[in-house]
Amino acid sequence: MRVLIVDDEPLSRRGVRARLLRFSDISVIGECGDGISAVEKIRAENPDLVFLDIQMPGLNGLEVMRQLDQEHLPLVIFLTAYDEHALSAFDVQALDYLVKPIDDERFYVALERARALLETSQRLRSAEKMIEVLKGESSPYATHFRVQTGTRIQIVDAENIDWIAAAGDYCELHVQGRLHLLRETMRSFEECLDPARFIRIHRSRILQKSRVMELRRLENREFLITLVDGSEHRSSRTCADRIDSWLLGRNRH
């Protein structure tokens, strides 16, 4: 969590910094002593959380908030010597407010609220960004796949896939020595992958053509295909024509 401290009182800034230094996952990216420099710093550094004093010279804390892009506001915990400022603080979407002198327990409760909200919003933004990537491609074929394990979402580039194998209701994506499971059918994979780059050699196998190192002819128009990762895959007779067409195309180049 990247934190900015804004307060015109140096002693107050030191107190907030000292409390934050107890946490290894928090980085204090700077301090400001007035509202004008605070606006500039927030715009330039885009902190996750700002501890913001309400009463300051130049611009007060509420005015600082109103100067910022309302769609990209950081989380804000207001600092104030006057409890009556609380309602005004929440009017500008503050996460919380702390009355000076700051109570340690109250400080850590507010910090944990910020931490929990930031984690949730980051996960949401990450997922939304991934979905935008997946939907925003101009190619008719998939260039990325989203693999979710619990709360983790990974993006697998199609160009990094070595081969795909059927595994019951799932498909195994073999990617540079790693295995990812995705609940899809082989047919759906075959339809969404670029045929110029991938070839189905068996009802349970799809290979990336660029990973093929060797093909050995067997009986019944079958092949034993070796990939650069050392794995071997036996093709089926029903896929012989497409393999022959691919090989013929390669021989022409």
Overall mean pLDDT stands at: 85
| H/E topology pattern | EHEHEHEHEHEEEEEHEEEEEH
Per DSSP E runs of 2 or more residues, the count of β-strands stands at 15
Count of DSSP H/I helices: 7
Share of β-strand residues: 25-35%
Radius of gyration: 28 Å
Question: What is the C-level CATH assignment of the largest domain?
Answer: Alpha Beta
Largest sheet properties: 5 strands, parallel
Q: Predict the CATH topology of the largest domain.
A: Rossmann fold
Low-confidence stretches: none
What is the spatial order of strands in the main beta sheet?
2-1-3-4-5
Domain count, please report it.
2
Helix percent band: 25-40%
Give the N-to-C terminal Cα separation: 54 Å
- How would you sum up the global shape? rod-shaped
CATH superfamily of the largest domain: Response regulator
- CATH architecture label of the largest domain: 3-Layer(aba) Sandwich
Organism: Solimicrobium silvestre
Protein name: Response regulator of the LytR/AlgR family
InterPro entries: CheY-like_superfamily, LytTR_DNA-bd_dom, Sig_transdc_resp-reg_receiver, WalR-like
Domain HTH LytTR-type: 145-237
